[in-house]
Write a structure and sequence with these properties.
The chain is of the alpha/beta class and about 240 residues long. The chain is about 40% helix and about 20% strand. The chain has helices at about 10-15, 35-40, 55-65, 100-105, 110-115, 125-135, 160-170, 195-205, 220-235, and strands at about 25, 45-50, 75, 90-100, 120-125, 150-155, 160, 180-185, 205-210. The strands form three sheets. A five-stranded parallel β-sheet has the order 3-2-1-4-5.
Length: about 240
């Protein structure tokens, strides 16, 4: 019996929107379940699995090997579409990131618009902002669909609660009187930089942006940044 990949409702919906026969670029691929599934179903002939970090890309290679599609999948360690050439792909999927991050990826790759590459976008946040920036960038939204999961998967091994996110959105912190310092990773794909900057400015917080940081600071280099930042904050209190 041939093994199959059972996609979550969110990824299944994204997969259904990928054009038949397209050479796919899956940005932020993580485990590469989506391209592997489409290759096994015969819907696409080849795929590029791209991710910003080596950890997810290693998991993508494992998935391709496990399901026997490694010969039809290429792997790129890159930021967004920066490591993918325009002539290599006919369709792009960007799923599981914040809307502002998706907009930034597309703005950094103008060839996507000029070549009229079909896009399947699945933002986890800032959906109205993404719509606005797509319009300003000359894109047209042809179809919108909604999938319900009740949970938000992440690349760092934790699953976030949609109910909690919805509560936070409907009960925002309107006043923040406690002196606060914030360390933000510029490569955070879950919390948009504009949101953090606006919060810090509105509440007088001291914001430090680490360009190589992510939502989860976990590498030795990132942890060293956290340690230096904490020491600097504590020194200011003395």
């Amino acid at each position: 019996m041939t093994r199959r990949i059972e996609l979550s409702p969110r990824l299944r919906l994204a997969a259904d929107l990928v054009p038949e026969g397209a050479r796919l670029a899956d940005v932020g691929t993580d485990h590469a379940y989506l391209p592997a599934c489409l290759l096994m179903e015969g819907k696409i002939p080849s795929a590029i699995a791209a991710d910003l970090r080596e950890g997810p890309l290693s998991r993508a290679r494992e998935t391709a090997a496990e399901y026997g599609c490694g010969d039809r999948m290429a792997f790129r360690l890159c930021d967004g579409l920066s490591g993918i050439r325009p002539e290599e792909t006919d369709a792009v999927v960007i799923a599981g990131m914040g809307g502002e991050t998706i907009a930034q990826i597309l703005e950094a790759a103008p060839w996507v618009r000029t070549r009229k590459i079909p896009l399947v976008l699945q933002p986890m946040s800032s959906i109205p902002e993404l719509r606005q920036r797509l319009g300003e960038g000359g894109f047209r939204i042809l179809e919108e669909r909604l999938a319900r999961e009740g949970r938000i998967p992440t690349t760092f091994g934790q699953t976030l609660s949609w109910e909690y996110l919805r509560y936070v959105r409907t009960h925002p912190a309107r006043r923040w009187r406690t002196p606060t310092a914030i360390l933000y990773g510029a490569r955070d794909h879950l919390t948009d930089r504009e949101t953090v900057e606006a919060f810090a400015a509105r509440n007088g917080c001291r914001l430090t942006v680490e360009e190589a940081g992510e939502h989860w600071f976990h590498t030795p280099e990132q942890l060293a940044v956290v340690d230096r930042w904490q020491r600097a904050c504590l020194a200011d209190l003395e």
